Amino acid sequence: MKTENEYHRPVLLHEAMELLAARAGGVYVDATLGGGGYAETMLAAGAHVFGFDTDLAAWHVASARLAKFGEQFVLVKENFAKLYDAMRDHPLLKKEGAGGWLDGIVYDLGVSSHQLDTASVGLSYRVDAPLDMRLDPRLKTSAKEIISNYDETKLKEIFRNYGEEPYAGPIARKIVQARMAGAIETTAELAAIVTQGIREDKKNETLSRIFQALRIEVNDELGNLRSSLAQAVGILRPGGRIVVVAYHSLEDRIVKDFFKNESRPEFAAGSLGALKERIDLSSARLKVLTKKAVTPSAEEIERNPRARSAKLRAAEKV
Ligand SMILES: C[S@@+](CC[C@H](N)C(=O)[O-])C[C@H]1O[C@@H](n2cnc3c(N)ncnc32)[C@H](O)[C@@H]1O
């Protein structure tokens, strides 16, 4: 079995935990359990932790690691988009007050090193594997189905919107032409098609964008994040915190905009009074704790190159 750090080395652990400020007896959600590095820190502080993940290996590794905390830890084998449904009936949370009852929630988005390095679901173009990409085996549509069935326009949109790929159109066309000659079954086959005619030194960055785009589409990653953040604000107690670590600009933008919108007082419609009277100060639900995103130190990036794109943002329920 892999050691904890071989499975996944937590990114921005210290910074995320400092902002979450988990306290003994409090109830927290780790929305992306992974290898359990974040959860262990919260549990060691005496908190109760509900750990969400959809990945079988994460369930095993984190459960074994966290078994020593007994009932303080609850494994939730669910997508974090099901946050509210999974939490609402738990006895620990029945003690709720009117303003919500969760003390904090942390998201460390994306995938673990283990998921990237293992061949099983084909997340990385560096490892040849069946073209699947489902982080939750219960999902219906795999990357192979998308590559086989989406029309050229839809493929182009995915590559452009989720991969920010400048050559989304030509790449979509190459895929549609190639699949007429036979099904595209593996990550290596897809990588060979995508990189046809692309300069050697541009191949890896193009593949990263295309694989990112497909993974986002397969797993509805942006939709899940938006939905889960909205649920999280609803179930946090006043003073409870949301901490999010994102690894690409699309996710980070969703978090940044969400925090901004939720922390801005609304203009009450229809009022003719002075400007200050038209601002409903009671409507802001969050206070942003990180004016600028927190990023890893040069030393952390040196130790763990996968940390390099991480951006952490945090907010507190008011
Ligand atoms: C970067 S890792 C988290 C690492 C963790 N903080 C640690 O300390 O080991 C991300 C994890 O989130 C899980 N994940 C991604 N999207 C998810 C979702 N929508 N719902 C639940 N888990 C998700 C992945 O399966 C993966 O295990």
Verbal overview:
The protein is α/β, with parallel strands linked by helices and about 325 residues long. The chain folds into 2 domains: about 5-115 and about 220-315, Vaccinia Virus protein VP39 (Rossmann fold, 3-Layer(aba) Sandwich), CATH 3.40.50.150; about 120-220, Putative methyltransferase TM0872, insert domain (DNA polymerase, domain 1). It is about 40% helix and about 15% strand. It has helices spanning about 5, 15-20, 35-45, 55-65, 85, 115, 145-150, 150-165, 170-180, 185-195, 205-220, 220-235, 250-260, 300-305; strands at about 25-30, 50, 75, 100-110, 235-245, 265, 280, 285-290, 310-315. The strands form 2 sheets. A 7-stranded mixed sheet has the order 3-2-1-4-5-9-8, sandwiched between helices. It has a two-stranded antiparallel ribbon with strand order 6-7. Helix 3 (about 35-45) links the parallel strand 1 (about 25-30) and strand 2. Helix 8 packs across helix 9 (about 170-180) and helix 9 packs across helix 10. The longest helix has 17 residues, at about 205-220. It is globular, with a radius of gyration of 21 Å. The N and C termini lie far apart (about 45 Å). Bound molecules: S-adenosylmethionine.
What share of residues are in beta strands?
5-15%
Annotation field: number of helices: 14
- Please outline the major beta sheet: 7 strands, mixed
Bound molecules: S-adenosylmethionine
Helical proportion? 40-55%
Unreliably modeled segments: none
Task: List the defining traits of the structure above.
binds S-adenosylmethionine; 318 residues; globular; seven-stranded mixed sheet; DNA polymerase, domain 1; alpha/beta; Rossmann fold; 42% helix
